[in-house]
Predict the 3D structure of the following.
Amino acid sequence: MFPYVSPEQQMKDRADFARKGIARGRAVVGVVYEAGVLFVAENPSSSLYKVSELYDRLAFAAVGRYNEFESLRRQGIRLADVLGYQYARQDVTGRSMANAYANALGTAFSESSKPFEVELLVAEVLSDSVDLFHILYDGSISVEEGHVAIGGQADTISSALSEQFEAGVDRDTALRAARSALSSVDERDITPDRLEVAGLDRSRGRRKFFRLTTEAISAVLG
């Protein structure tokens, strides 16, 4: 006979397991600036990205197990393409994609043998604002205002970012604030070659996504 485990204890064990896996990953910071949203992550790899484009006005950022959030990213791109083809490109919204991810993570958390060890951000840039959705490992979803940090030591980073954040700043100022907040964890300066910087800019053409090179990051950070 299998030992009995109460549903409450089972959910708690799953949540603890997922949080420990996510905490091992380095954080990602999202900052809203005057023209859109900027994602900054400490990522020494030049080929494995934590931040990527989902659709014309949508971006995706994640922390946790790379193979799991990469699979979710690919599924999200396919879903966005199908929705845009069947209906209209304007019908693919950040809210619809965030809800799809929340459903997938919630189902895995409650029904599969192991929950996803990931935490996600989905951003949509609009004509005069930014929608920033934060999806947890259990499918919980919240709308963030101004800035957000996910991953290891997110609370410490978010507190540091709150002290520096100002609404309506330019992209370079947002990048410097994000790097400073990430560095606050162990009081060291993260060099540009260890940073991944990407985001959405509403002033661009149909596709709003951009990614900064190491040279461009160095020019801003000095």
Notes: The chain has one domain: 7-221. The CA atoms of residues 156 and 186 lie 10 Å apart.
